[in-house]
Amino acid sequence: MEKTVFLTDMAWPEAKARLPKVRLAILPTGSMEQHGPHLTFETDIAIAAELARRLALQHHPRVVVAPPLPVGMSNHHMNFPGTITWRYDTFMACLEDTILALSRHGIQRFLILNGHGGNRAAISVLATQLRYEEELMVAGCTWFELVREACQRFIPKRRVHADEIEAAMGLYLAPRVVRKAALAKGKAHADPYPYTDPGTGGGIEVPYRWEELTPNGAYGDARRATTEMGKELTAVFLEKAGEFVEAFIVDKTRGAGKKRSATRP
Ligand SMILES: [Zn+2]
After folding, report:
1. Residue 132 alpha carbon to ligand 1 centre in Å
2. Is residue 230 part of a domain?
3. Counting C-beta atoms within 10 Å of the first and last residue's C-beta, which end of the chain has fewer, N or C?
4. Distance from Cα 90 to the centre of ligand 1, integer Å
5. Would residue 68 count as lying in a domain?
6. pTM (2 d.p.)
7. How do residues 76-98 score in pLDDT, each as one tens digit?
8. pLDDT of residue 199 exceeding 70
9. The CATH number of the domain where 56 resides is what?
10. In what order do the strands lie in the sheet with 109-114?
């Protein structure tokens, strides 16, 4: 039987036995947004949740995975039919309440494993607030930033979205999100203003609507995606994230958390 890493897969006596060993909870975050003609709305959270599962298995039994958050900040994709966005307050409140609840069960270290660029600002604000207001140590990681260098073996410096990188991760980690027959080239053109693509290092932030960047919603050429690319990027991610987790969970000198009980916040 495979080891249990998702909290949702445990009954409470199992959680009771497990929690004293747990040093870190991973919170997968994603989006419910368009991913071109070839990847489904679930793509970001499907990839983040599967990376979280693999990372937690690597550190079993010291790491558990909280319920994946299925919706994120996708205002910039709302002109594509079907996309759902939350407001910043909603997204941050969902994460904060989950983290505070888990901290009441004794978990003091958190890693938000993010699969969607639009969530980065909110994660950064929340992690900062929780450190200084609650003494809780929350790390944020957007997977394609951690493997940015490895991505450049396959693509030039640019945004990652509904392209060969995401399609490859989908093929390897969650094949249900890939519509193989629909795989198409992105219609992305240069940004309207210079230095605004965060994938190139950017430096200037402009809130574009996605259709202003690519009319079919995709970048790159998802037809070039292979399972092998996804496997290689996943291995790089797990090595780097794993190294971070090992250092993060043994460090007792920072962010010990305020004293609280399971019944009283
Ligand atoms: Zn995505």
Report:
1. 31
2. no
3. N
4. 20
5. yes
6. 0.95
7. 999 999 999 999 999 999 999 99
8. yes
9. 3.40.50.10310
10. 63-65, 24-29, 109-114, 137-142
- Measured in angstroms, how far is the CA atom of residue 224 from the centroid of ligand 1? 17
74 three-state secondary structure: coil
Residue 132: C-alpha distances to residues 56, 97, 100, 127 (Å) = 27, 16, 14, 9
Give me ligand 1 centre to Cα 88, in Å.
18
- Is 63 within the bounds of a domain? yes
Which residues constitute the domain of residue 19? 7-152+235-248
Tell me the average pLDDT across 162-170: 98
Domain count along the chain: 1
User: Is residue 166 one of the residues assigned to a domain?
Assistant: no
Tokens at residue 70, please? 């299925």
Asked if residue 151 has pLDDT above 90, the reply is yes
Residue 20 CA, chain-centre distance (Å), reads: 26
**Distance from the alpha carbon of residue 56 to the mean position of ligand 1, in angstroms:** 22
Is 253 or 221 the better-scoring residue by pLDDT?
Answer: 221
